[in-house]
C-alpha cells in the first residue's frame, strides 16, 4: 500500500494478508502474524510482480516464481491472489504443478479473452 493511499489495508482488496484459525488462541496468533506480513506487502508485491514480468504474456506458476526468488511457495502463492484482486496479475490458464495437479499460472499481461 502506498504512503499516498490513506485507506486501511484490507484482505478483500488484496492490500492485507489474510488470517485463519478457529480457536481463540489460533485466531489471535493468526491475526498477529497476518498483521506483520501486511507491513511487508508493498515490497513483496513489487518483488513478485517483477518476477512474473520476466515471463511475459506466457506467465508462470507460483512455484516457478518462488524458485526464481528463492522463497517458499507458501510465501508467493498468497501474494498471487492478492495481486490478482488488485488487477496486477492475471490468470493465464492451468499448468501441471510439481505434484502433477494442475495449478493456476499468472501473468502481468492481461489476456485478450479476460473481461475488462
List keywords for this structure.
alpha+beta, Arc Repressor Mutant, subunit A, two-stranded antiparallel sheet, 2 strands, disordered N terminus
Could you provide a short overview of the structure?
By secondary structure, this protein is of the alpha+beta class. It has helices at about 25-55, 60-70, 75-85, and strands at about 90-95, 100-105. Strands 1-2 form a two-stranded antiparallel ribbon.
Write the layout of secondary structure elements.
Blueprint: H1 24-53, H2 62-69, H3 73-85, E1 90-96, E2 102-107
Antiparallel strand pairs: 1-2
Helix content range? 40-55%
Largest sheet: 2 strands, antiparallel
Alpha-carbon Rg, integer = 15 Å
Order of SSEs = HHHEE
Can you tell me the CATH architecture?
Orthogonal Bundle
The CATH class label is Mainly Alpha
Region (Disordered): 1-40
Biased composition (Polar residues): 20-40
Biased composition (Basic and acidic residues): 1-10
Structure description:
It is a single chain. The chain is built from 3 helices and 2 strands. It has 116 residues and is an alpha+beta fold. A two-stranded antiparallel ribbon has the order 1-2. A hairpin with a 5-residue loop joins strand 1 and strand 2. The longest helix has 30 residues, at 24-53. The two termini are 23 Å apart. The relative contact order is 0.15. Mean pLDDT is 84; it is low at 1-5.
Amino acid at each position: 500500500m502506498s504512503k499516498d493511499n490513506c485507506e486501511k489495508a484490507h484482505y478483500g482488496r488484496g492490500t492485507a494478508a489474510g488470517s485463519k484459525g478457529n480457536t481463540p488462541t489460533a485466531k489471535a496468533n493468526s491475526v498477529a502474524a497476518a498483521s506483520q506480513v501486511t507491513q511487508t506487502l508493498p515490497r513483496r508485491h513489487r518483488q513478485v510482480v517483477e518476477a512474473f514480468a520476466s515471463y511475459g504474456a506466457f506467465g508462470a506458476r507460483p512455484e516457478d516464481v518462488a524458485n526464481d526468488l528463492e522463497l517458499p511457495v507458501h510465501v508467493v502463492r498468497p501474494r498471487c491472489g492478492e495481486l490478482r484482486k488488485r488487477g496486477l496479475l492475471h490468470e493465464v490458464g492451468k499448468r501441471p504443478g510439481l505434484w502433477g495437479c494442475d495449478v493456476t499460472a499468472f501473468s502481468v499481461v492481461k489476456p485478450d479473452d479476460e473481461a475488462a
